[in-house]
Predict the structure.
Amino acid sequence: MRIQVRRTGGFAGIERHAEVDTSGRPDAPEWHALAEQAVAAGRHTPPIGVPDGFSYQITVDGKTVYAADPRLTDEQRKLISRVLKEGA
């Protein structure tokens, strides 16, 4: 499973992008469950965020959803954080 996160917005407007490929990872089932929950709660169009807040594009195996601060689910927040931390 390929999980991609693109973060835009914020005070400085700096875009950040990262990707994780779960193939061969021992923790792949955990990633898959988290990604499925995050995508299920996402929107198909970019939501209107708050001034200087972050907006996110989450793509899992080619399916893209959108989310924005401060209305992220716990699963979305955890997935975004992990991908941005561990992804290349």
